[in-house]
Amino acid sequence: MSKTIKKYELMTFQIGEYSFGIDINDIQEINCHATMSKVPVDYPAVAGVINLRGEVLTVIALGRMLGIKTFCSASGSSNYVVVKTANHRVAIAVDKLKDVETIPANELQQLPANFKLSNQHVLMGLVQKAEGLLLVLDSSRVTQLGLLNLAVA
Length: 153
Known about the structure:
The protein has 153 residues and is mainly β. The chain contains 3 helices and 10 strands, in the order E-E-E-E-E-H-H-E-E-E-E-E-H. A hairpin with a 2-residue loop joins strand 9 and strand 10.
């Protein structure tokens, strides 16, 4: 018998003008102090790397991947949401951290057919809220954006 999800607990954050959520169970930590280093890779998903207590993590430029103008790229500072799945960990650069929200499973909707966003395959769906849309990310697809073997000296 399969277990039915009754609700989603999502860590919410903002990239540009858009609100995103990701399953709180897939978040290792929130980091507001790490300094990103640029790396010479020709891969649009990678903004750089951060050193997190001796481990080098790929920083995903999710805004750039989705075609969203971000505020952090202009200011040079970011908050990082460190996402982990069974085999991978990456940091997502976000403009603003929000809150943890509990969303009933029946409120998660599929993306409409006319919804066009670059690389939208990383989205599970969306939730219509009074203040606008909450785009829900698929953690496993987001961490796959950072699958690079980065050699750091």
